Amino acid sequence: MMLCEKCSRPLGPELQTCPQRDEGACPYQVAHNRLEIEQRGRAVWGGLALCLVAAASWWLPTLALWARVGVAALFVLGVGMALTGVLCLAREQTILYNLDTGQSWQKTTFLKIPLNQKTVGPRQPLPWLGSPGRWMRYPASVAALYRGGNAADMIATALLQLLAHEEILLYRAESKARFGNGRCLFVFTPGPGIGSAPVSGGLEARILEAVALAQVDSPDFDFHGGHFPRSCRALLTLEDLLVLVFEGEKAQPNNYMIGEVVGPEAEALNLGLIKGKRALYLAPHNNTRGRIGLDIRSVEQLHRDFWTTYPEVAKDLLIEIDLLILNTITGLGEAASHRTQQDSGA
Question: What is the pLDDT of residues 69-106, one digit of tens each?
């Protein structure tokens, strides 16, 4: 059982009515899922509108038989939308969270009947134990692209370079639900070494910009003009970070990373040209291997250090990056991602 760090009350209903909150002394905030209520309200009205249109069309005297079948299907769809919206409006969600520790408690009810309960945190640090951040002539992400890396390789390499310079910090937090299996979350916060890396590429800068939002008290992230729901109210998870870096779903994440983020930077540095149509790649110039060879060895050493100091963490983190890009960024796991967002709280 997790307790409040200040008053030792159990993290749950007892802490909801903490008397210190009115005085501003309670470290935990309370939030409710208002965004979903607005969305489901629109579903109710939209469903009712479809039902009215279908009902009015049914009585048209010139309506053909095949058209009546379509109208009936439209009516059924409208009824389904309206009922789904009404049922979801009866779903309530309460979240207690502490941005400083990353701990949170969430309870979901339907017509006041408890459906699920989830706790997350606290953060457990995973400090960088490899060799100190190395000097590199080019950004680490560009070196990863040059050696033939895909989107996951470029992101993993950029993360490791930022971790080695302590520009960002890596943590692990456990998420436990009353129903279902618990899971480990990788989370990030800004580090004390921001700005210490001698060379930072566009991907690294984008990661730093996203990680800077880790402790913003908001149910959503505003990033590069986009509006992205966070998957955990008190933490910036790896899933959130990737969604921000890619600015939402991308049908071809490799092409996006090569064609719009890292590739143009490699071209500007005169390291090669972006080629290909369906699958983009960097075609290096003949004279660039000697210029970037030392950086490629530094990138390889970054990965070796991480695997040596945290073999299990390295395996889990790199697999998680691959799976999230496949399931969340490409949209193949849209339904699972949507459920995660709903279970996170607003």
Answer: 676 776 676 666 666 665 666 667 788 899 889 999 88
Q: 3-state class of 238 per DSSP?
A: helix
Using CA atoms, how far apart are residues 183 and 323, in angstroms rounded to an integer?
14
Q: What are phi and psi of 116, to 5 degrees?
A: -160, 160
- Token representation of residue 183: 């899971």
SS3 240: helix
Please give the C-alpha separations between residue 59 and each of 54, 64, 69, 134, in angstroms, as whole numbers. 9, 11, 13, 76
283-318 confidence digits (pLDDT tens)? 998 888 889 999 999 999 999 999 999 999 999 999
d(CA 233, CA 345) in angstroms, rounded, equals 6
Count the neighbouring beta carbons within 10 Å of the beta carbon of residue 277. Answer: 6
| Largest Cα–Cα separation, the chain | 80
The answer to whether 123 and 173 have CB atoms below 8 angstroms apart is yes
Q: Partners of 13 in the beta sheet? A: none
The alpha-helical segments, DSSP class H, found in the chain are 13-16, 34-58, 65-89, 140-146, 151-164, 202-211, 238-246, 253-256, 263-268, 289-309, 311-324, 334-344
**Three-state DSSP class for residue 64:** coil
- Find residue 62's DSSP bridge partners: none
d(CA 18, CA 98): 14
Between CA 327 and CA 159 the distance in angstroms is 20
Burial profile 76-104: b = 16 or more Cβ within 10 angstroms, e = fewer: eebeebbeebeebeebbbbbbbbbebbbb
Angstrom distance (rounded) from CA 17 to CA 93: 16
Structure confidence at residue 280 (pLDDT)? 93
Over 50: is that where the pLDDT of 336 sits?
A: no
Residue whose structure tokens are 């700005």: 195
CA distances from 122 to 29, 114, 159, 172 (A): 15, 24, 22, 8
Nearest one of 146, 96, 333 to 258, comparing CA atoms: 146
- Burial classification of residue 33, based on how many CB atoms lie within 10 Å of its CB (0-12 exposed, 13-18 middle, 19 or more buried): buried
Q: Averaged over 129-143, what is the pLDDT?
A: 89
